[in-house]
Amino acid sequence: MPKxxxxxxxxxxxxxxxxxxxxxxxxxxxxxxxxxxxxxxxxEIEGAxxxxxxxxxxxxxxxxxxxxxxxxxxxxxDDRIAVPHGHYAAPTMAATVVPNxxxxxxxxxxxxxxxxxxxxxxxxxxAGDHFVYPDCRPGFVEAFDAMQVQAVEGFGHPNLRLxxxxxxxxxxxxxxxxxxxxxxxxxxxxCYEGGDRHCGRCGTCVERIEAFALAxxxxxxxxxxxxxx
Amino acid sequence: MPKxxxxxxxxxxxxxxxxxxxxxxxxxxxxxxxxxxxxxxxxEIEGAxxxxxxxxxxxxxxxxxxxxxxxxxxxxxDDRIAVPHGHYAAPTMAATVVPNxxxxxxxxxxxxxxxxxxxxxxxxxxAGDHFVYPDCRPGFVEAFDAMQVQAVEGFGHPNLRLxxxxxxxxxxxxxxxxxxxxxxxxxxxxCYEGGDRHCGRCGTCVERIEAFALAxxxxxxxxxxxxxx
Lengths: 229, 229
Hints:
6 helices; alpha/beta; 5-stranded parallel sheet; Rossmann fold; homodimer; 11% strand
């Protein structure tokens, strides 16, 4: 019997790369999708490509950069807005919200899942995202799955479901799980600034540093500097 | 007080162009979105541009053509699969399903709606679509709205809602409404073949011909030939 197939949205950050390793360990054939929506840190996608190569997964980079100019107001896609520094859960991080990003990526992932007869669509959203990103919360994940259930049976794939195994996990728990799974963390990318090295000061760098420390796992990331927040 | 804004998905077909005219008549400022997902009848988008120009609406053509190669299996995006001829509600029309097309387009429309502070997202799905397209059914529309309610309050737009005013209407009823609203039907495009003129034989041409006849409205469309089905 062939292995079941999973379509996973993988940005190249440590959460989604750990998701890919977890699905591979659970026996899924994988097709990883990365999205270029004009984010300034699109170099993160190299982390997804590296994970696909390491896991023998199919990989596609999906170009949504044409909608960047319509998504004004986010520091991730609008060059006129600075990436906020400080703690990931701070109100200033609202500037990094990209409107409806997860719904857009998930809807495209479901299209691919229907075309390929996959059994699951997977997303690496986690509990640390809930403060800032409404489209990472459990209620959103459940409602998205329910919406797709309405459509996918009609598309001939009644068993296709959304999985979000980290939706109740902290980032430190993901680091611990990734460590057990042998995730090469140095090949993952978090920093929103998208420079040559992780800046160490933006919200997602601070969150990354904190997660390794809390998990008690050595952080292999070279940072420009380490913020004390 | 400024007029409320609506983001409408307009393919350039007669349903969605009538939708745009209806929203304009109801007093909305309009931003029309058309999607190029590699459909062979992408010339339909000219109908959307003409409607935007006539209504003084903002217009954007969103390029999703990069995902065409991932959406194999549909006659609309796969050049190796012929467009079926015959009645729109026939089982053969399953070949024209594009997996998850409406969820993809709606998710992007919601992103634009959040970025622009719109009050509604609008889609022209109608009752005649229900046989073939699961993502045009009332249950899908309700579930999509419920999914976005989970996200849009967190994005700061708690009142943003999905409207689908034709979800229980036949195409003949839409023709009748468009006629009342002064829709220039000759500038709308239905044919899936995407040739120089409407073919008159594919499912959506047959449906178009039938709708004008049932509505008792003169059909201004030049067809290659009229199928008798």
